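Final report, results section. Input specification for complex C-07:
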Amino acid sequence: MSRAAAPLAQVQGVDSDAKLAFVEFLLTSIDVQESSRRAVDWLVAHAPVTEAAVLVAEPLTSEMLLVAEHGVTSGAIMDFSLSREDSAHPLIQALHTPAPSFVDALPLHHRAPLESRSFHVIPLRAEAGEHAHGLLLVAGLAPALDAETLWLSRTLGKQVSRLMGRQLLAETRFGQERMLLYSIINAVTDPILLTDTEGKLIIANSHAEKLFAAPEEASEGWRRAAALNNMLFSAALSTSAVGMSEMSRRELLLVDPLEGSDLLFELLSSRAKDERQGTYVVSILRNVTDLARAKEEIEESYRTLRVAQAEVRDERHRLDLIIDSVADPILVTDQEGDIVLMNTPAERLFNAPGIDDEGTLRRVRANGANLTSFVSNVLTRSGEQRYRGEIQLGDPMTGRPLPVEAVAGTILSEQGELMWVVTILHDLTEAIEKARLYEQLKQASVELERKVQEATAELADQNELLRRQHIALEQASALKSQFLANMSHEFRTPLNAILGYTHMLLNNVTGPVSDPQRKSLTRIDSNSRHLLALINDILDITRIEAGRMPLNATSFGIGELFDEVQAELEPIIKRSNLAVTTKMRAGVPTVRSDRQKVKQIMLNLLSNALKFTPAGSVTMTASYDSKQKEIAIAVKDTGVGIPVEDQVKVFEDFRQLDSSPARGYGGTGLGLSICRRLAHILGGSIELESTAGKGSTFTLRLPAKARKR
Amino acid sequence: MKPASTTAREQPLVLVVEDYQDAREMYAAYLQFSGFEVAEAGNGIEAIDKTHELMPDIVLMDLALPRMDGWEATKRLKSDPRTRHIPIVALTGHALAGHAEGAREAGCDAFVTKPCLPDALVTEIKRLLDLHRPNAENAKDGARTPKASKKRS
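Structure output:
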């Protein structure tokens, strides 16, 4: 502003109003060209000017630009071009002269914007001695410049210096566009560079400058970073397909000069052709560092997502397997009631995939409808977590009724909103069938119970009947035993007489008998004795069976019994010519048992042995089993023996192996049967060991101390 | 039947008590044949009467008797001081155990099961008489005589 005040002080000139208006205009103008044009206009109005032009020094190039003119043909304007490096040119020389000069007849090889070859050249500067920013060319004036023209030149000089100093290019037409372009490219956040094909920087926007140009005051690191970036950039350009006209795109790693961190750029470069400047390269760097990082992050997220998806898929697969493996149909429905998930068993009921049979489809739809109504029931009962009900479905394939129990559970979102309904169906056919069977079973059970009761009652009656029959039988049996006992007694009374008289006759009580008489009497005697033996045996059995054979236990030695038995059978032993021996093993104690019965058994066994042994020996052995406290009396013979198949029979009633009437052994056939019965009464047993043709061993075993029955 | 006082007897007197005549006479005949004097009774009452009258050396008592059975008769004889010493041999026709027990309880000194051959009976009687000899001084050795021919087929 201090410079702007200067022209105002001199406004008090010849034409003060015109000057004042001009100065006011200049003060409001910020444009070199506009100011210059006004100045030329003012000059033309106030002086006899034929031609005039204003040239200003373009600060970035060495050009002198024509910014205003008067009387100059357009062709001259187009052709004009002047470089400040053309130091031989009078106009360039005039730029450095302190005072205005008059060019009289400019040599033709020098170009000037005016037609006239003679003109005044007035340097435009702020103050005398300062560097000139431009030139005012005026033709048509007298060689000595008038005061008005000098004032104007001084005023314009100040104005041009002021504007050129503040905004060098703004006052020029091209400069303005350049400024605009600068503004534009500076506004672009991406670094933009204009270089020659070698990579040498021509123009860079501020973002590019930060990367590639280090100011004077920059640190060593910054400068190095800038140098490195330049190298990298040049290398990138030279290796890129710069030769081609189309745009090339590549990545470029640079260094942030301030941060020192890596910056990744996408380098877009394309060739531009300029007629004056030749071929150069426009490069735009797009910072993709964040992008790359973002990309990495995205890739990482994507990978995580993929893993998560795989996990979810696995989980889902597992879940599918699990719910498919459940035999009961499972369905998941959304809040609209639409099925979103179901397992295979459920699909059979509600989907019937791959089947287009009309009946099946109809049943599937019916099933679906039934399910929907169930689910809608569930949906209306908000608040209940579980809902149980029965649905009548049908087997889609067969149409068989399929009653199911449905259990539904609701799944709520975190906000408590109902999300899904999970329904599990359970086939009730079996349960119903079971219930039916159970009912039948119950009825059957009741029926059975009734029958059992009837049967029990009947059984009780039967039992009662049986009891009575049993009593009757017992009575009958007792009567029979009594009868038999009586009868045998009655038999024996006359038999006693027969035997007695026969005996008497044989003993000559009634006088001598002849031999034939004796023979007959002997027959009578032996048959009577046999009859008596039979009667006695029958009586014994009867008594045993009637339980009227009590145990009469006394203590006695087996040895004495051996003697007695042998003595009683002495005649038979003598007749048999058999060697009869007895053996007492060591430790045989005194026996407490029914002496008479033991003796009876021994008599029987020994007489049997004698009877059935044609030759050889009979041995009676007594031994004692101290562990069992059991006496064993074995009667061993070397007789005919008993075949194995007959060894049971010999103990049966009336059984002799040779049961022909003419049997040679005598006896009633009741002996062993009675022996066995007696042995039982004594708490013992009789065993038989025999080989046909070799002999038999009958062993009586009895407890050393018979127990009272 | 000749009544004889105890003192005058040369042979031991056996009172045969038996209701079955054939058997009674058979025993009697054989006992006589064997050297005894024999008296007979057909029932229990008669047996008591005859015992008191004849004071036999031994009584052969059938148990199953009409009017008064052998047990009762034996009991009475054994409870009478006059007849207590006379040995009584029971003839138990019923070989049922109860009969033997009953006989012993009634006071019989021995018992013989019917059917019994005369020989066996004689043997038993002799055995008992030998046992009672010290009591009956006058019985002497008479019972031990004539024929005791044992013959068995």
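The helical segments of chain B are 21-33, 44-54, 70-79, 97-106, 118-132. The domain at 10-116+128-142 of chain B is CATH 3.40.50.2300 (Rossmann fold). This concludes the modelling results for the funded period.
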